[in-house]
Design a protein that fits this description.
Layout: H1 13-25, H2 30-44, H3 62-75, H4 79-108
């Protein structure tokens, strides 16, 4: 488990009440809520603008959708974040396979050169 550190600060009572209500509504904890908010804040800095963004839409079975929602809830993240994470991981794995396959093919290609011992030398 990653090393943890405390963070605290005073906020207006109205904002505190909103935070408490959200935590209770989502059946979360203060720690998880704050971690999620802070992570979202830093993720937005690297976010893609709407002009750069593309949409992927798929239909899935009710059973798969239910499983998806359960995992997202358990991870305490947003659906979009989870989908981007798993798509990124899957693409990276495929790209690594392609790269390994291309390297293997390059190693098997004949170079057209003879090994040193087989070169004709005239002395």
């Amino acid at each position: 488990m990653a090393e943890m550190k405390n963070i605290c600060g005073k906020i207006p009572i109205e904002l505190h009440e909103q935070v408490r209500a959200e935590i209770e509504q989502t059946e979360s904890s203060t720690q998880l809520f704050l971690q999620k908010i802070i992570e979202e804040h830093f993720m937005k800095k690297g976010a893609v603008s709407m002009a750069e963004a593309r949409t992927i839409a798929v239909q899935v079975s009710e059973e798969l959708f239910g499983r998806f929602k359960a995992v997202v809830a358990k991870k305490h993240c947003k659906q979009k974040e989870f989908l981007i994470e798993i798509i990124t991981q899957a693409i990276a794995a495929e790209e690594a396979k392609w790269e390994a396959s291309e390297q293997a093919a390059r190693l098997q290609e004949p170079t057209g050169e003879l090994p040193e011992a087989e070169h004709d030398t005239e002395e």
